[in-house]
Design a protein that fits this description.
Number of domains: 1
Number of helices: 5
Strand content: 15-25%
Strand order of the largest sheet: 4-5-1-6
Distance between the termini: 26 Å
Low-confidence stretches: 7-15, 92-103
Structural class: alpha+beta
Radius of gyration: 17 Å
Mean pLDDT: 83
CATH class: Alpha Beta
CATH architecture: 2-Layer Sandwich
Order of helices and strands: EEEHEEHHEHH
Helix content: 25-40%
CATH topology: Alpha-Beta Plaits
Oligomer: single chain
Shape: globular
Largest sheet: 4 strands, antiparallel
Number of strands: 6
Length: 182
């Protein structure tokens, strides 16, 4: 079958007219490619990072050095994903005109931060395992605009307790295979 750009167009999960450089709090979830348990394992309700997980944690913690207009909040590296809250303070970056959303989105701060984190962690992990170009992350990522303090508190708690709930986590490959039958 020939490539048809209308049929094969990737569906964006982003809010169409939202400027992801706006001040606010954002929950970001990055999943590993094929949801492989690449970053460590859960033991006794806590995350035990392996070398790859340590790379992800270190790169995430260093993001404010590259992007001083952001603040890190709660985050956790899990066996096959990362949950993190990113804060963009008021005045962090000017709002962008959204006439051409597809082009402008690439200039927005949150996608830049996530893209940089994914690129650098993949490069470092692949150097360590001598596997250049091997996918580490899923192509897309999940983000949620956190709209109020109560939601922010709940998400912080969710992140803190995520390792303790791994057995029930929807990103746990055991639960994925139960849902999909694979």
């Amino acid at each position: 079958m020939a490539f048809d750009p209308e049929r094969h167009r990737r569906r964006s999960i982003r809010l169409q007219e939202y400027d992801y450089s706006q001040a606010g709090a954002y929950l970001v979830t990055l999943c590993t490619h094929d949801r492989r348990n690449l970053l460590g394992e859960i033991g006794n309700g806590s995350m035990q990072l392996n070398r790859f997980g340590e790379i992800v944690q270190a790169c995430w913690q260093d993001l404010p050095l590259r992007y001083p207009d952001m603040e890190l909040d709660a985050f956790v590296v899990m066996p096959n994903h990362l949950h993190a809250i990113v804060l963009l303070p008021v005045g962090a970056i000017h709002e962008l005109p959204l006439q051409n959303c597809r082009i402008q989105r690439r200039k927005m701060l949150l996608p830049k931060i996530v893209g940089y984190a994914k690129m650098n962690t993949a490069k470092r992990i692949n150097q360590l395992r001598d596997a250049p170009g091997t996918p580490i992350w899923q192509r897309n990522y999940y983000e949620h605009v956190i709209r109020d303090e109560a939601s922010l508190s709940n998400i912080r708690l969710y992140i803190a307790e995520n390792p303790m709930r791994w057995a029930d986590d929807e990103e746990n490959p055991i639960n994925i295979s139960k849902r999909t039958g694979h």
